[in-house]
Amino acid sequence: MSVVWKIALRNLREHRVKTLIIGMIITLGIAVLVVGNSLMDTAAEGIRRTYTSSYTGDFMVTGVHRGSLTLFGMQDIDSFDAVIPEIPSFDEVVAFAEQHPEVVATSPQAAGLAMVDYEENRSYMQLFGIDPAAYQRMFPESIEILEGRFLAPGEEGILLNAQTAFELERNRALPLEPGELVLLTGMNELSGVKVREVPVRGIFRFRYSNPQLDMVSLIDIGNVRSLAGMNLAKVNEAELSEEEAALFDVTDADALFGGEDELSSDEDALFGTELIESVDVVSGESLDESLVFTPMEPSAPQRSDEASNAWHFLLVDVRDGADPARVAADFQRFFSERGIAATTSDWLSGAGALAGLAHGMKSMFNIVILVIAVVGIIIIMNTLVISVTERITEIGTMRALGAQKRFVRRMIACETLITSGVFGLLGVAVGCILLWVLNATGLEAPNVFFEILFGGKVLHPVPSVGAILTSLGVVVVIGLIASVYPTSIALKIKPVKAMQGS
Amino acid sequence: MAIVAVEDVKKVYPLGKTEVHAVKGVSFAIDKGEFVAIVGPSGSGKSTILNLIGCIDTPTSGTVRIDGVATSSLKDRALTRLRHEALGFIFQSFNLIPVLNVYENIEFPLLLGKSTTNKAETREWLEYLVRAVGLEAFRKHKPSELSGGQRQRVAIARALAGRPKIVLADEPTANLDSETGKSIIELMRSMNEELKTTFIFSTHDGQIMEAADRLIRLHDGRIAESASTEQEAHAESGAEATP
User: Fold this and answer.
1) Which of A100, A205, B154, B168 matches a 20 to 30 Å C-alpha distance to A318?
2) A478 near A22, Cβ under 8 Å?
3) Which of B57, B93, B158 sits opposite A502 (nearest CB)?
4) Strand order, beta sheet including B18-30
């Protein structure tokens, strides 16, 4: 064994109390790092697996857009109510996806928001307009039918989320049954307010859910297109009747809502039969004549030429082992060559705020780790500085006897690396044991927040190779950084210090 | 040729806003194989001179030559190499490395550079040194398990391990009792005669002065006189004969 290692090892043994203090800090820090990162990795992998196999696919194709577009719609505050772009040249895009050797399944989807009324109860929900056959092919295990059945191909109807159904059943003696009708009201920039009466085909729940997904109901694409205004092109100049124009010209609140004397007559004018009678509640049989109520833009919107093929998303699933990013790049190249204004987003972009939040927790955890690392560096550095200053004569003697500066540098680096390495590995072992226990017992989510974070109700964490390697890398970096200052002090010790005695 | 040449050396230390002139233009030479003691009262500059010869300090002006090499022109790395190859040190407080045992402490200087001898020869040489300083039975002992005299014996063996041309000893008997000091001096003298190694001491110890071939007396940073111990004895007997 080289004399440097020998001295380093024996110095550590000689100062065993100090070594143990540093060692315990390192062991604890590394154990926390291994457990924390493994938990995060297990949770992140769980979230990824759950989302890609149940909701998002490996990536999604959308129309070109600004801001953050998820399967739930635009997520940016300033574009929350913006119209979701449709995928142009949809048939071409699907044809490309179908012939791509790495693509195993696709499912088109559209998003919409709606208010749902059932008798006296009301709820709000997120709608996923789907192609039932494609959806079931791509996400066969994603949902559990609690009552009724899944949507049949081409059939009009809604599959209500159990959470929404529960809210609609409040204060009712009888539960909401499949076959009953619910009233959906959607509002959008293109077609204004739309009201549709839709039959409930079933009640379901997502196998892996979260509060955001608990608001999602699945609906036939025709209805979601209508509610979201997808089958309508942007209307040109609205032509108002004199009476309607007069309504929009009113700027004085008193004139609009009237004084006490005029209240009754104005109420009639505003909420009376004239306008309400224009609301046309339509059923599935009259689906194509979908205009029902457009108070803001009273003239008839124009039918879009591509209405029958309007989709917001094409969810793409790649074969196991294929790199989704590489396949998405092929799609991007195709869009660029054909001049199609479409783009791709990874699963996380499509998954929505809560999945993003859970995923972002790892970054927050890493910040905590960074703080722990800085504290660790300071403690180790201080202890090393004390150790060096206690050994000034010894180091001075070594220098006097002919030890070059690099010898002193190596000696301190060895001490640091031995401490970091031994206690770092011990920390990894402790972390792995803790993870093994947690894996066996399962870590139950105490609340919804943790459910989101865990990607389910119980997390069975496994040691992550990445977490272990990261932890060991961190401990080496901590050791090296912590030794820089003490080494600089040691290197400044002149050999003449040997003459000053101990 | 002198193995050590000190030519008009001055050393000034800053002390706050003032300066301390520790050595004020000292010149002398020491030949190979000499057993020389630099003596003088505290603050006379003897330790400073020893540090300058030992290349662990640099003169403010003047030249120190070790085996013909002017040390003031050398950088840290070359000075360290010179210390390693040409010099051995014996310290007042022994300065052994606490975590190494007797054998390892003696071996230590040999591990700081490339070895010019094979392992067997090196081991034989180290065993000889262990025997020479009478510590065969303590070879595995740590410094903390040794007496002061034993520690200084280890330090002597360590100083000789690299077969240096010069051994510098700073008050080597100051922390030892008189009997132990005497045996240490005898040991160094025998090593000097056997290996022809030059020994230079800074000391107050009368026993070392008696054993030395020559004394260099310093007073207030200057050489008071330099004379062989025989000359001193002759001068002293002449003085005694004078009525």
Assistant:
1) A205
2) no
3) B93
4) B18-30, B4-15, B61-66, B69-70
Residue B205 in contact with residue B173, Cβ under 8 Å? Answer: yes
ipTM of the complex: 0.88
CA distance A321 to A317: 11
Q: Does B108 touch chain A (CB under 8 A)?
A: yes
Q: How far apart are the first and last CA of chain B?
A: 42
Q: How far is CA B2 from CA B32, B88, B165, in A?
A: 7, 18, 12
The alpha helices in chain B, defined as continuous H runs, are 46-53, 76-86, 102-107, 119-132, 148-161, 178-195, 206-211, 229-241
The verdict on B201 touching A (C-beta cutoff 8 Å) is no
Instruction: Note the pLDDT of residue B235.
Output: 54
- CB neighbour list of residue B86: distance below 8 Å, 6 or more residues apart: B66, B67, B164, B165, B166
Q: Is A238 in contact with A302 (CB distance < 8 Å)? A: no
Compute the nearest-CA separation of A405 from chain B (Å).
8
Q: Which of A115-124, A181-190, B8-17, B221-230 has the lowest mean pLDDT?
A: B221-230
pLDDT at A3 over 50: yes
- With beta carbons less than 8 A apart as the criterion, state whether B80 and A402 touch: yes
Q: What is the pLDDT of residues B6-50, one digit of tens each?
A: 999 999 988 888 998 999 999 999 999 999 999 998 888 988 999
What pTM was estimated for this model as a whole? 0.66
Is B95 close to A498, i.e. CB distance below 8 A?
yes
Q: At residue A283, what are phi and psi to the nearest 5 degrees?
A: -110, 180
From B182, B158, B4, select the one nearest B91 (Cα to Cα).
Answer: B158
Confidence class for position A270, pLDDT limits 50, 70, 90: very low
Q: Comparing C-alpha atoms, which of A79, A107, A70 is closest to residue A357?
A: A70
- In degrees, rounded to 5, the angle at the alpha carbon of residue B146 between the alpha carbons of residues B143 and B152 is 80
Sign of CA dihedral A38, A42, A44, A45: positive
Residues of A in contact with B140 (CB under 8 A): none
Residue in chain A lying closest to B86 (CA): A402
Task: Report pLDDT for A447.
Answer: 77
